[in-house]
Amino acid sequence: MFSPTKIKQEEHQTVADIKLQPKSLSELLAVAGHSRLQEDDGGNKKRLMTKLLMNVTIQRSLGVIKVVISPEKTVEDLIENVLEIYLKERRRPLLSETNPGCFELHYTQFNLKSLDREEKLMNLGSRNFFLCPRTSETIISSCSDEVKQAANSYFQLPRFMDFFL
To answer: Boundaries of each DUF7054 domain copy (predicted)?
Structure first.
């Protein structure tokens, strides 16, 4: 039942105390230690995330790999963790290479530009990524270079024919 002392205790709560009280289970868990509180310049407390749930799809693999990781980690750390989980769970198909340096992380499979390996996860703006093997680095040549090579090879053919005559 209600007692007068309990009602008086509730009356003495300040507005700031009421704002900080959790209203849902997720807020309760956040206050219980799953997130940190940081004060900004105005003295207001702001919650910071301590862990992120990242979803990474590996090329030619079924399903997504879920990784719980700190937002302070880099893209390279995420690649290492994803490969570790993939190997630990013995997923198929087997990877031909397990070195994290041989893989690139993209926002989607349709995005050609890979993410910077030193970028922090909290700055990426997404939690869904696509991991694919790094393409072999080829020498970029212009069309004019290829035309010159082809032209030179055609002019050498008559010289070779003169040798046989």
So the answer is: 50-132
Where do the structural domains in the chain lie, given as residue ranges? 1-36, 52-133
pTM (2 d.p.): 0.58
Sign of CA dihedral 46, 51, 53, 59: positive
Residue 67's pLDDT band (cuts 50, 70, 90)? very high
Cα–Cα distance between 141 and 146 in angstroms, integer?
A: 7
Give residue 138's identity as a one-letter amino acid code: T
> In this predicted model, what pLDDT tens digit does every residue of 116-131 receive, in sequence order?
999 999 999 999 999 9
Topology classification of domain 52-133: Ubiquitin-like (UB roll) (3.10.20)
Give the pair of three-digit tokens for residue 102.
Answer: 């041989």
